[in-house]
Amino acid sequence: MSAAMERREPDEVLAPAPSLTPEDLPAQGRRAQYFVEIGRAYAQQRNYRDTPHALLRAEHSAPQHVRNMVHVRELVGHMMRKARRDLTTGELGRLAQRVGVVA
Fold first, then answer.
1. pLDDT of residue 41
2. How many domains does the structure of the chain reveal?
3. Residue 59: exposed, middle, or buried by beta-carbon count in 10 A (0-12, 13-18, 19+)?
4. DSSP string over 12-73
5. Angle 97-62-69 (CA atoms, 0-180°, nearest 5)?
6. Which of 48, 68, 89, 94 is deepest in the core (most CB within 10 A)?
7. Vertex 103, ends 40 and 28: CA angle to 5°?
8. What span, in angstroms and rounded, lies between the C-alpha atoms of 62 and 57?
9. What is the Cα–Cα distance from 15 to 6, expressed in whole angstroms?
């Protein structure tokens, strides 16, 4: 999935996702990475409704790991700049605070 994201092929990231079971991944960091890649793929497709949900699931799996990821900070910062005001005060806004995008 990460390789497909680096090639900017979000469809290749999302296509196998329904058949995978992230709970079967042995490490919490791997589980978190799975959801981060899903979130990045949604964002590349401009699906900003599902992006935060994927990032929140990643954060739930491995909070410190996800909060320190550059990709997550950049993505959340981008979404904060593009989001409607009502979204920036909800879950997205709280996530932005936790990853250090806003004070």
1. 94
2. 1
3. buried
4. HHHSSGGG--GGGSSSHHHHHHHHHHHHHHHHHTT-TTHHHHHHHHHHHH-HHHHHT-HHHH
5. 55
6. 48
7. 40
8. 9
9. 16
Per-residue pLDDT of the chain (103 residues; tens, 9 = 90+): 778 888 888 888 898 888 888 888 888 888 999 999 999 999 999 888 899 999 999 999 999 999 999 999 999 998 888 776 656 678 888 899 999 988 6
What is the reported pTM? 0.84
Q: Which residue segment(s) compose the domain that 45 sits in?
A: 2-99
Q: What is the DSSP letter of 25?
A: S
Q: Can you read off the two tokens belonging to residue 89?
A: 């005060």
